[in-house]
Amino acid sequence: MRDITLGQYFPTDSLIHRLDPRIKIILLITYIVLIFVTFNFFALGLVAIAVLTVVLMSKVPLKLYLKSLKVIIIIVIITSLLNLFYGTGDPIFQWHFIKVTLNGIYNAIFVCVRIVLLLLMSSALTFTTSPTDLTDALERLMKPLKIFHIKVHEISMMMTIALRFVPTLLEETDKIMAAQKARGADMESGNFIHRIKALVPVLIPLFVSAFRRAYELAVAMECRCYQGGEGRTRMKQLTLSKRDYIALVISGALIAGIVLCNIFFVNIR
Amino acid sequence: MEFIEARNLCFAYEEADDSSQKTTKYVLNDVSFSVKKGEFVVFIGHNGSGKSTVAKHLNAMLTPSSGKVYIDGIDTSDETRAFDVRRKVGLVLQNPDNQLVASIVEEDVAFGPENIGIEPKEIRERVDEALKAVDMYDYRLYAPFKLSGGQKQRVAIAGIIAMRPDCIVLDEPTAMLDPKGRDEVMNTILKLNREAGITVIMITHYMEEAVLADRVYVLDSGRVLTEGVPEEVFSQVELLKRHRLDVPQATELCYKLRSCGVEIERLPLFSDDCVSMLKEVLR
Questions:
Q1: How many domains does chain B have?
Q2: Which residue of chain B is at minimal alpha-carbon distance from A230?
Q3: Is A260 found in the same domain as A218?
């Protein structure tokens, strides 16, 4: 458990890595929307090309992308099958209660491709952006929400601390498990419920220690003059460079392309 | 007035016992001390002697029940100035794991300066400078959980000195470290005191660390038992032993030899000093 990499950050040097994290988050959201407003194969193909280009440009081994796809393969298959069998229109194939329609096939392909693209694009973000950059960018992006009295700084502080303590608490879980095993606790045998019950003596000390850590951290933060977000500055400044603007322009062109596809090929599915 | 001055400092809290009667428990009882700028002062005492409570009074995390603590003339019981006090006196705690906030070393060091609103460019300079001062500059992009205990504690110290305090207080900074980590941290502390001129107040129960100080205060059950330069303090072997406190190994050896009749004119603090003295005796 020691060697966990937080998130899935894969540090190499690519153009995608060097993009401003704020831009990357905005573009991810844009692309997710785009993926779901493609109503025909041309539009879907266009988004697919864009996503695959990003994936290739990220210089992250394709194996890693496939690995993250593996997790959702069952969801993809089930939703595709459901769409396949519940299509409306004239059946082109029927066997007992199962009927396949042209509409169903279209839907199945669309759903399948959409989910895969969605996952590839979000993986591209987490592979190319370190968790700290992500929280940092989120804080800056959420700043306008302040007018709705949302505590943006506090939220991002919580994310930062959570990220910081995940490995620490994992290490602690390891230690507690070893300690309980040394006292004769059995965690590996028995059925599911049995094993869940065996976790209680691990979770209780873990919670107690997490609270103690939280208290000590609060003291340490106060010692370092932490008084919330008011009057706080940041060492790292994010500045947009030429490549960020280029990414925005290309994405703008893509949006236009998809809108055109949706309008002009409306009758072709 | 000295840079840090505690006058008749008392700290007490109410404790309900079994019969729900409230009794007042004194953690610190009439403690007075003063620290000059640039000094290296150590507080020793065993568990429950109140030494950690002293540390928390020095940066206004706790305020006296009675008596006064002045930091550079500022009264710590003035709540409106608590953050002024904390900018002057930085506190490093025992567990390095629980005082690091960010998941990258340099961002953690930047946390303090960010809190007090320093300009981004200057934070960068301060962070680099602080990391170099504790010899952790090469690790600036590491995740804290990949560092050893001694390295983490040095990052914690860097996080404090990046705020450029006049004084750092360390509350048992080496208690959770292995011998190697302890050496690293002690060398860093000594370097900061001697080269950068930062006032250092250290709480410890290791006598080997206490002998390196300019002055030592010995606390016992909330009172100052004795104080002075290490030579003075540790020559009172009987007094310290009576209060279940240790003396450095070299001192103890010579003390025992002396009580067995070996002629030793003074008690040494360091082992090499002890070795050369014993050589003299054996000649």
A1: 1
A2: B115
A3: no
Cβ atoms A50, A62 nearer than 8 A:
no
What is the C-alpha separation between B92 and A147, in angstroms, rounded? 37
A85, A86, A89, A95 alpha-carbon torsion, rounded to 10° = 40
DSSP H or E stretch at residue B115 = helix B105-115
| Cα–Cα distance, B164 to A46 (Å, whole number) | 55
Smallest CA-to-CA distance from B36 within B160, B214, B228 is with B214
Inside any domain, residue A80: yes
Residue B167 near residue B90 (C-beta atoms within 8 A): yes
Work out the mean pLDDT of chain B and round it to a whole number: 90
Average pLDDT, stretch B122-128? 95
Number of domains in chain A: 2
Determine the pLDDT at residue A268. 56
Q: Are residues A99 and A66 in the same domain?
A: yes
pLDDT for the residue numbered A101: 80
Place of tokens 């934070």: B123
| Of B71, B103, B89, B97, the residue nearest B4 (C-alpha) | B71
Same domain, A26 and A118: yes
CB A174 within 8 A of CB A205: no
Residue A6: pLDDT over 60 = no
Inspect the interface and report whether the beta carbons of B120 and A213 lie closer than 8 Å. Answer: no
pLDDT averaged over every residue in chain A = 86
* CB-CB neighbors (< 8 A) of B117 in chain A: 231-233
B201 φ, ψ to 5°? -120, 120
Nearest chain B CA: its distance from A103 CA (Å): 50
> Please, what sign has the CA dihedral across residues A7, A12, A15, A18?
positive
The three-state secondary structure class of A155 is helix
CB atoms A132 and B104 under 8 Å: yes
For A235, which residue in chain B has the nearest alpha carbon?
B120
Each residue of A7-38: b (16+ CB within 10 Å) or e? bbbbeeeeebbebbbbbbbbbbebbeebbeeb
Higher pLDDT, A84 or A54: A54
Return residues 165-224 of B near A (CB < 8 Å): none
Helix (H) or strand (E) holding A174: helix A152-182
Same domain, A56 and A109: yes
A218 interface with B at CB cutoff 8 Å: no
Q: Which tokens go with A201? A: 């003596």
8 Å CB contact of A235 and B127: yes
- The tokens describing A56, both together, are 């290739």
ipTM tops 0.95: no
Neighboring chain A residues of B90 at a CB cutoff of 8 Å: 223-224
Does the pLDDT at position A215 exceed 90?
A: yes
Q: Count Cβ atoms below 10 Å from residue B127 Cβ, excluding itself.
A: 26
- Report CB contact under 8 Å: A235, B143: no
For residues A45 and A174, state if they share a domain: no
> CA of B128, closest CA in chain A: separation in Å?
12
